Amino acid sequence: MSWAVVLGATSGAGEAIAREVVRRPGLDLFGVHRGNHLSAAEALEQHAGDSGRAVHLRRADAGTAAAAEAGADELLAVAGPHSVRLFVHAIANASIGLFVHGEQWLRPDQIERTFASMAHSFVWWAQALVKRDLLHPGGARLLGLTSPLGESLIRNTGVVSAAKGALEVYVRHLAFELGPRGHRVNLLKYGATRTTALGRVLDDGTLGRLDRMLQRMTPARRPCSLEEVARFVTVLAGEEGAWFNGATIDFTGGEVQSLYDLVVHPDAEALE
Length: 272
Prior knowledge:
This protein is of the alpha/beta class and 272 residues long. Helix content is 44%, strand content 14%. The protein has 9 helices and 7 strands, in the order βαβαβαβαβαβαααβα. It has helices at 12-21, 38-50, 65-79, 108-131, 158-178, 196-201, 204-214, 226-237, 256-264, and strands spanning 3-7, 28-33, 55-59, 84-89, 141-146, 184-190, 248-251. Helix 4 links the parallel strand 4 (84-89) and strand 5 (141-146). The N and C termini lie far apart (51 Å).
């Protein structure tokens, strides 16, 4: 059997991807979640079962080195060696805030946790999977997720942007190391969608402006959906995506160009 491993499997992009890959290309699912969305976890188990796929959900914080080791041990017991076709890192456990402005600066522990969850853990899980021969010998896909935040100066998001920058570097180096074994490592950058994580990064006023601007800030005149992101991941998981490697794949629909205007000209309602 071939398995997909999804970190952050019960919310946001992780949930959408988990639901899609059990349907197409039809992978069994090993999902990790922190337990904040239990109803979504139950619905995901039901969906996987209805799709005829095996599902195993682990309730844990996936963003530490110890968690990667323990999670990989559990995965080996459940799925066996050489079973992982797809690994998706969709953890959104970050702190927001300013570095030196205002009264409350980002603390060292907040910065360390953000980097651990959103960047370092990608490496820790890759190491744990390789160490246990869990990656499929026919070629596995390892995928991280990112956003246009790394190309912006949106208030309070500096440490998130820095962690995503580190993740991009990790992806390039892991692609070089794992490429000779037939594996592919990439980073998927998708555009703004209304998720719980985005609501933590942007205040209500900025979210309102973003909703209005998203109607015009992409050539399609609408925001990207998480379902569209998930469907594209199924392409990357198949033979059609076999030549992508070490890439940061732009799936923003042209949004990045207009994000600049949201930051520099926050009173602008839309781009004509």
